[in-house]
């Protein structure tokens, strides 16, 4: 699969992406969100707290495609359109259960990010990413939070949803 268009779109939408945001993108594309469901009660509680705290807004994209099969569905426009909270949580659950881990794909995506950074931001950005990855690999493959810069700039509140699940949801409306 060609993931470059998705990485380019990620940078177009979020030009303040940092190394950890790039790795988060690669992780999400490769592993989905199943890691969030290791403790179902905690995942459900966190979702409801985040949904409640997120202000409705139609100023954000309803969703962002991060791969050929996966979307980040933004909570603010979901709420602003009056869709039920439980509907998004169920979409998230079904999508997480469909996700198949692809560790080899993760390594390929990290290489894609490295090449992309060299082409778009120069050798020093690629080298900085390489140093970040040395530290990351030492801890093994694991999910990351968005960077502080990304969080301040974009206030991300979304859930990963399979594109086919989301299309089915839209058809039911």
Précis, in short:
The protein has 173 residues and is mainly alpha-helical.
Question: Would you kindly provide a written description of the structure presented here, covering whatever features stand out?
Answer:
The chain is mainly alpha-helical and about 170 residues long. Helices cover about 65% and strands about 10% of the residues. The protein has helices at about 5-15, 20-30, 40-55, 75-80, 85-100, 105-120, 125-140, 150-155, 165-170, and strands at about 65, 70-75, 160. It has a 3-stranded antiparallel β-sheet with strand order 1-2-3. α2 (about 20-30) packs antiparallel against α6 (about 105-120).
Estimated share of beta-strand residues:
5-15%
Radius of gyration: 16 Å
Distance between the termini: 31 Å
Strand segment tally = 3
- Relative helix content: 55-70%
Parts with pLDDT < 50 across at least 5 consecutive residues: none
Per DSSP, the total helix count is 9
Shape: globular
State the strand order across the main sheet: 1-2-3
Order of helices and strands: HHHEEHHHHHEH
Quickly count the domains: 1
Structural class, from helix and strand content?
mainly alpha
Main beta-sheet annotation: 3 strands, antiparallel
Rounded mean pLDDT is: 96
